[in-house]
Amino acid sequence: MARLNEKFVEGLSITLHEAWRRPKYRAIMLAVVIASALLAVATSVALVHAQTAATGDQQTPYTMAVLGKAIGAGLAVGLAGIGGGYAVGVAGASAISAITEKREVFGTAFLFVVLGEGIAIYGLLVAIIVAFVLPT
Description:
Blueprint: H1 2-21, H2 23-55, H3 61-101, H4 106-133
Helix pairs in contact: 2-3, 3-4
């Protein structure tokens, strides 16, 4: 198990270093991370403002819990979107190359592209659970 974790960390490190070396990918990754964080904070501040305006109260532990849940949900969607987008980009490029050479691998290649998209769907499900199911 430890060997598998070491290989995973090594592969992730190589992938991130390769993506970081290219200025276009670096700019896209930074822009998406910054936009995700800003949108998460903006959404949570809007929710807290709506909560305090509706009840007439000042900030309470309840409103701060709503703020934390909203930030967590926004980051779950944003960061899962980054991972899913990167996975689909890499798998899609490889799938197109494989299909060009051997037409019979279309089903397998399509499956790998869809599995990468599942990462973003899991992030959305986690955000829904955080926002609506977890108690405040």
